[in-house]
Amino acid sequence: MLIVGAGPVGLMLACELGLAGIRPIVLEKRPEPGDLPKANGLGGQIIDLLDHRGLLERFSAGSPFSGRAPGFPFGSVPLRFAGLDDIPLRLLMIQQPRLERLLTERAAELGVEIRRGQEVVSLAQDENGVTLGIEPQGGGRREVRARYVVGCDGGRSRLRELAGVGFPGTTDDEVLRLGHFAADVHLFESPQVSGLQPGWNQMPTGRVLLTSLQQGVVIAGVREKGTYSDGPVKLEEFRAAVRRVVGEDLPLGEPIWLSSTVSQARLAERYREGRVFLAGDAAHLFPAGGSALNVGMTDAANLAWKLAAGLRGRGPEWLLDTYESERRPVAERAMIQTRAQAALDRAEGADGEALRALLTEVFAYEQAARHLAAMLQGSDTRYARYGPDSGLGREAGQGPDSGQGPDTGQGSEGGGHSLVGRFVPDLALADGRRVAELMRRARPVLLDLGGGGTVPDDCADWIDVVRARAEDPPAGTLLIRPDGYVAWAGTDGLARAAEEWFGRASSHA
Ligand SMILES: Cc1cc2nc3c(=O)[nH]c(=O)nc-3n(C[C@H](O)[C@H](O)[C@H](O)COP(=O)(O)OP(=O)(O)OC[C@H]3O[C@@H](n4cnc5c(N)ncnc54)[C@H](O)[C@@H]3O)c2cc1C
């Protein structure tokens, strides 16, 4: 099992596979772990998943913020959640290099091998496996072979290109130049920035970001129309962009790091090509912030247990196909809200002002705020029921029956229960545990809350059975997938569901 790319998504996938007892090899072209401060944080269901794995405490140590979101900058329109109980959206401020370092540590604890300085340059596959050509740093060329390969190699994915999968979408005509500066001045007290607010500032020829997430470091960004060109950004280039948009220099201090990027909205035509899968930025690029790591890292959790089942020869035939049919609609939905954020950001002139003013009013309604919070969290995701008799094929999960969007389903038994296909609620159990604590090992869990239920003998080795009590249980018994989604709820048909999802040996591997 090979993973290409040791970014957050490849590392998350490696950790999930490691938990499932698979020892993947991660091939990474960079010789050293990344130190680019790209993402400043995680938002959404990935935080619940880190909680499931017992990692949340470790990952949030020293974080400036971890918890339920007090608000969210939706495009340039603020969403405010103050006074609203149980807003689903969770945020964890963590810089990407630290996230990658912690995931690397965790992968090492789980016995994953990361081979750095190994650039993948070719791909060939047949019905039994995939052969990758690698150019190691220092020269030479060699080949490695595996039964499955996952391309977690970022937005410019070589794997995606080599597998012949298109990446249609749009590229913004604005370039964002971003920098971290050592600012020993009280920036916002300086007369030169007196007209600017913390956060994004709309100017006639572009936008300027000024914010700080840690003492002594100011993050500054300038967004303006222009053509993006690859390569390092020089301080003079950054200053010139500031002058063009603000009209004067800003007292930003010494640069720690400078970069430029351009927003793109792209979705891979397919997430799977034979034995090659795509995850994270390799599969989707969103044009506004806050969702990329959430969707990418939860892609990894969705795929890992299915691949592990395939590699063990016990996954049903259809299981690996559900990666795409479950995850692509999630990315499509994230695309809707991130495109809307980008549009709100960019709408210009009086029309743009009117749009933002009106939506500021609309977002003040509780239902609107909750709806958007659920969308950003990903808690409105509902996977369709699969299985040989479900009548759902590869396209299942898309369209009106996918359950994406507001919950309209009502509770009933079995596959029709309103929890089926949804992320399991973190119930408090009478013995003092939470459901999240049952998910540490990333194994399927049959949670008997008084409804009874047993798993078939041939599943007993890999499904954990937990009998517990909870006040007001949502169902008698829940069958929870390793990625935290409810596969079945109720009592009738549980054994069969367990066998369908997790039990059958197959020739698929
Ligand atoms: C300025 C900025 C701010 C951002 N802020 C946020 C944020 O706050 N929240 C958020 O969720 N997201 C944010 N993002 C997006 C986030 O950084 C990406 O979504 C994330 O890095 C994607 O992770 P990944 O593992 O899919 O890909 P990457 O992080 O791109 O990792 C891909 C890895 O694959 C390796 N690789 C590439 N090609 C090959 C090859 N041929 N062979 C071997 N290895 C290869 C690369 O070296 C790299 O290590 C931000 C992005 C930027 C640029």
List the helices and strands and how they pair.
Blueprint: E1 2-4, H1 8-19, E2 25-28, E3 41-43, H2 45-52, H3 56-60, E4 66-68, E5 71-74, E6 77-80, E7 90-93, H4 96-109, E8 113-116, E9 118-125, E10 130-136, E11 142-146, E12 149-151, H5 158-162, E13 169-182, E14 199-203, E15 206-214, E16 217-225, H6 235-246, E17 254-267, E18 272-273, E19 276-278, E20 284-285, H7 292-312, H8 321-346, H9 349-363, H10 366-377, E21 445-448, E22 464-467, E23 477-480, E24 486-490, H11 494-503
The site of flavin-adenine dinucleotide has 33 residues, from helix 1, strand 2, strand 9 and helix 7.
Describe this structure in words.
- It is a single chain.
- The strands form 6 sheets. The chain has a 6-stranded mixed β-sheet. A 6-stranded antiparallel β-sheet has the order 14-15-16-13-17-20, sandwiched between helices. It has a 4-stranded mixed β-sheet with strand order 22-21-23-24, covered by helices on one side.
- Strand 23 (477-480) and strand 24 (486-490) form a beta hairpin.
- The radius of gyration is 23 Å and the shape is globular.
- Residues 391-411 and 505-509 have low confidence and may be disordered.
- It has 509 residues and is an alpha+beta fold.
- Helices cover 28% and strands 25% of the residues.
- The longest helix has 26 residues, at 321-346.
- The chain is built from 11 helices and 24 strands.
- Helix 1 runs parallel beside helix 7 (292-312), helix 2 packs across helix 7 (292-312) and helix 7 runs antiparallel to helix 8 (321-346).
- It has 3 domains: 2-66 and 92-167 and 268-344, 3-Layer(bba) Sandwich (FAD/NAD(P)-binding domain); 173-263, 2-Layer Sandwich (Alpha-Beta Plaits); 409-503, 3-Layer(aba) Sandwich (Glutaredoxin), CATH 3.40.30.
- Bound molecules: flavin-adenine dinucleotide.
- The site of flavin-adenine dinucleotide (FAD) has 33 residues, from helix 1, strand 2, strand 9 and helix 7.
- Keywords: FAD, Flavoprotein, Monooxygenase, Oxidoreductase.
- Its cofactor is FAD.
- This is FAD-dependent monooxygenase.
- Residues 385-417 are annotated as: Disordered.
- Residues 2-335 form the FAD-binding domain.
